[in-house]
């Protein structure tokens, strides 16, 4: 059993996905179901603010690591809508 996490394990891709259509944001204006064409954000905060600034609904932020056991999703909820 490996007890340590290496630097390579912590490299993460941050993407935006529509929870209803499962499509990914591509070039900041179009959508695709092909994961490899998805736009990669620098940080989760950047992805979050993109959703807020573009009034996107039904979104989730995906964090994809080299080690898939570390992957995560975070639903985006804009509380400003009431």
Verbal overview:
This protein has 82 residues and is of the alpha+beta class. It has one domain (11-81). It contains 1 helix and 5 strands; from the N terminus they run βββαββ. The strands form 2 sheets. It has a 3-stranded antiparallel beta sheet with strand order 1-4-5, covered by helices on one side. A two-stranded antiparallel ribbon has the order 2-3. The protein is globular and about 35 Å long. The mean pLDDT is 87.
Feature tags:
82 residues, alpha+beta, 3-stranded antiparallel sheet, two-stranded antiparallel sheet, 27% strand, globular
Q: Using DSSP, what is the number of strands? A: 5
Question: What distance separates the N and C termini?
Answer: 47 Å
The number of helices is 1
The biggest beta sheet reads: 3 strands, antiparallel
Q: In terms of structural class, how would the helical and strand content be classed?
A: alpha+beta
Overall radius of gyration: 14 Å
Strand numbers in spatial order across the main sheet: 1-4-5
Provide a quick synopsis of the model.
The protein is of the alpha+beta class and about 80 residues long. The protein has one domain (about 10-80). About 10% of the residues lie in helices and about 25% in strands.
């Amino acid at each position: 059993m490996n007890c340590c996490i290496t630097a390579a394990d912590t490299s993460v891709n941050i993407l935006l996905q529509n929870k209803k259509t499962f499509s990914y944001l591509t070039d900041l204006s179009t959508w695709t179901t092909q994961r490899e064409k998805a736009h990669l954000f620098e940080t989760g905060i950047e992805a979050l603010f993109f959703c807020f600034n573009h009034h996107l609904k039904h979104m989730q932020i995906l964090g994809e690591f080299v080690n898939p056991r570390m992957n995560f999703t975070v639903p985006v909820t804009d509380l400003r809508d009431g």
